[in-house]
Structure formats: C-alpha cells, structure tokens
Amino acid sequence: MKNADQDTVKIHYICQTYVEKPSKRGGQPDLKIDKTFTYSTASEAQNRAEREAQHENCAGADAYIITEDLNSGELEPPNFLVRLGNVPEFDDF
Predict the structure, then answer these.
(1) Strand locations in the chain, DSSP E?
(2) Which of 13, 30, 32, 67 is within CB 3.0–4.6 Å of 45 for a Cys-Cys bond?
(3) Cα dihedral 17/22/28/32 (nearest 10)
(4) Considering the entire predicted model, what is its pTM?
(5) Is 92 inside any structural domain?
C-alpha cells in the first residue's frame, strides 16, 4: 500500500549555475542563471554542481532540493545541498 504523502508530494533535485553579467550601474557584476538541470537523486545534482563550478565561465553553482505539493502546486523553500562560488543570496533566490 502506498503512503498518501507519496501521492501528493514530488521532490525535485536541481543543479543551477550562474554567470556574471556587467551591472547597468557600473558596480558589482549581477548574477544571472545560466543553466538548470533536474536529476532523480540528490547526489546527481550535487555532483553536477561541483563539476559545473569548475568551468571557467561559471561564477557559481547551487544544488538543492525543492518539495512540491501536487495538490496545491505550492513549492517549499529550497533545501541547499551545496553552494559553490558566487551565488545569489537566499532572499534573491
């Protein structure tokens, strides 16, 4: 028998990378999302973030988990597995 929560919750494992773009105001460069990858396990997402963060043009990378309530469509805040390099503040996420 399936657990009722399994039918109403979906877990997303995400790797997201960032690049720096020149600021319009001439100050600190802005971060922009470059690539987003979805995986079936947390370790896959974390491994990809670690690899991507080593690329020369990558400013930073996150690997995180998001839980989605399939009934309401609501997403919980991300649970970060790893944050590497220059990444946005959590409030900017």
Answers:
(1) 9-21, 30-39, 60-69, 79-85
(2) 13
(3) -20
(4) 0.83
(5) no
